[in-house]
Amino acid sequence: MTVAVLGSGPVGQTAALLLAQRGVPVILVDEHERRQPVGSKAICHQRDTLDVWASLGAGCLAGEGLTWTTARTFHRDRELFAVRLPDAGSALPPFVNLSQSRVEQVLDELIARQPLIDVRRGHRITGLTQPGCVEIACVTRDGPRLIEADYAVACTGAHGDVVRRAVGERLDGVSFDDLFLICDIRADLPGWAAERRFYFDPPWNPGRQVLIHPCPGSQFRIDWQVPDGYDLAAEETGGALGRRIRAIVGDRPYEVVWRSVYRFHTRLVRRMRAGRVLLAGDCAHLVAPFGARGLNSGVADAENAAWKLASVLRGEAGDALLDSYHAERHAAAVENAEVTTATMEFLVPQDDRQRRHRAEVLARAADDPAAHAQVDSGRLAEPFWYTDSPLTTPDPSRPFPGRPPRGTLPPPGPGILLPDVTVPAGRLRGLARQGFLLLTTPGVALPAGLRAVEIPVGGALGARPGEVWLVRPDAYVAAVLSEPSTAEVLGALGRASGCR
């Protein structure tokens, strides 16, 4: 029983490693003969993404990345406010900045040591069919090849049109007219190493925005919003790029490490499951990068797909469990699209009403803290909460309060990612990733044969006497049951396994 993972960017690498960790043989297919580690690309990695990578043996990424804990927002030449990121009681930082190429290098090293992963580089996908299995047609330097697998996870990115067309999907949505210039520079900027800085309408980019992220090795990622038709080559030749950088770094030495121009999109496929193929990452959804919801959401796709495929292939669940992959991860993609579209409308107003709203909010935010929440420079990536999932058993005593204020987390409960806490038996998320886990308060009896760990009343979970918490293999809470019968426990477990 084999899964083909198509595309070996960070999402594909993560999917392959998670599947192999669960004992599933993987064929990892990529069109490139070798990697080209050029540019920072995706740099901003959220705590729960780091947690997934640490569970695979890549805990070094959290330590190598540059930790930042403060997001500062400016309007013209004045700071409006600063947001401190929540620590959530975890040993991992809320975010680190680290180049995508370094992430790929570390994950490649893990893949090379994993005997269940067969890497097929230099395989350009030309077609895909599903005649009772998945058949992937490829072209290599030695001629055509056909790869067969029981299922496939498509992580072929924004340009994965061949795979999307083969399963009857496309990325529908909008593209934004404004462009964004991205430069990685190396410079000594004292005091900027632990902060993300966002500037609305600064004097050195009037009428538009600038975002600055610190990176390891005294590097900084700078994003300028620039008009449609912007010519990077002409700006470099005429010296305007140097003046643009000098306006930020001042009269100090700097080096341009990489630069590029991007146009941002909000696009989604209609279905993230197409028969035996699950679409993940940028192959399934594109969003603007403000808030770092692209790669982080893709890693969440990978984990969701991996535990469900492993359960099906091991005979622990039926094929219907895979329908919940679409139900959960498409809902996450829709939320990310809503959040980032609202950000883009604030950054790049599309009509007079939006322009007036932005001007009024920025003017009020200078003196009125109540207006700070309306200043939208990007709501930072956070887990999606599966409160409406068909796998989740609702608890009327723990209703989901809705999307919490920016920079905060919802209270633990059904559909919420388990807090990163440790009990005498070990780290709860690590225990959960070994399979379905029951957490019991003292004195609760459970049916024989179920894996359970006792937790204290209260604590980080806010557990109440007589409660049983059911946790999924991706560390999401599937149910909270009060003094449950055996039938209630088994019913919640069956629902979380996609059997009901």
UniProtKB/TrEMBL annotation:
Residues 2-335 form the FAD-binding domain. The keyword Oxidoreductase applies. The keyword Cytoplasm does not apply. Residues 396-414 have a biased composition (Pro residues). GO terms for molecular function: monooxygenase activity. InterPro entries: FAD-bd (IPR002938), FAD/NAD-bd_sf (IPR036188), RIFMO-like (IPR050641). Its cofactor is FAD. Residues 384-414 are annotated as: Disordered. Keywords: FAD, Flavoprotein, Monooxygenase, Oxidoreductase. It comes from the Bacteria. This is FAD-dependent monooxygenase.
